Amino acid sequence: MLRLAVLVLILANVGYYGWSNGLLAPWGFAPHTEREPERLKQQIAPQSLQIVAPGGAVNAGQAQKPPTPPTAPAMAPVAPVPVPAGSADAPGSAGGTASAGSDGRVQAGVCLQAGPMNDARAAALRSALAVLPAGSWTLDPVEISGRWMVYMGRFADEETVARKRTELRALKVAFDRPGQAFEPGLALGRFSTEEAAQRGLADLTSNGIKTARVVQERAAETRHLLRLPAATSAVRSQIAGLTINWGDTPLQPCR
Questions:
Q1: How many Cα atoms within 13 Å fall on the side-chain side of residue 11?
Q2: What is the share, in percent, of the chain residues with pLDDT greater than 70?
Q3: DSSP track, 164-231
Q4: Section 109-114 average pLDDT
Q5: pTM here?
Q6: Are 70 and 76 in contact (CB under 8 A)?
Q7: pLDDT at 37
Q8: Residue 123: how many CB atoms within 10 A of its CB?
Q9: Residues 6+ apart with CB under 8 A from 170
Q10: 3-state secondary structure of 120
Q11: How far apart, in whole angstroms, are the C-alpha atoms of residue 177 and residue 173?
Q12: Where are the domains of the chain?
């Protein structure tokens, strides 16, 4: 009985599948479909229909043209702006970044500096730059801190220096040449404070260095920094025509 029920269900499913997919249509068994072919015959020139935006209208057979974007008005040429004398951008103003040239156009300036330099060089530079426009340059004091060095020397000759270098390399201790005032000798480290130099010496002593000591390589002093905050091409040409010995502090872009 159970097998008969299963067989009936399988045949019923197969029959429904064939009927719903139109496989039994040749024998007159197919689902009824709603169709209205007579409405297609009643259409008049469907190819002339066009979709238009709300509120717009076009004639039949004419394509709607996109709106033409408005043409931007032409920009009038900007006339050069003269810089009034005494303003922040005029020549000779310390805070300016531009100046007016002979043709009335604005000339951009660049920031230049040199130094720090000692008192003697600052005095010579102050005299040489006196011909530049007032306020176009400054020579400001700069405080330079002292510097200490862990030092070995002075040695009797260069042969002794060479022998000490070999010993330091064996101990893997870094070194370089000291300043001219401490030749012949070796610098084992430079420090901004005496306390830091003493700590560096203690580390080296524990590493087997016995003859090094702390010396002051440079005392604290006041030096001078030249600054041209807005040097135009005219000012730079004037400086190039002056006889100035820049030494080891050449004129360069501001940092």
A1: 6
A2: 68
A3: HHHHHHHTT---B---GGG-SEEEEEEESSHHHHHHHHHHHHHTT--S-EEEEEE--EEEEEEEEEEE
A4: 90
A5: 0.42
A6: no
A7: 62
A8: 13
A9: none
A10: helix
A11: 14
A12: 98-142+225-253, 147-219
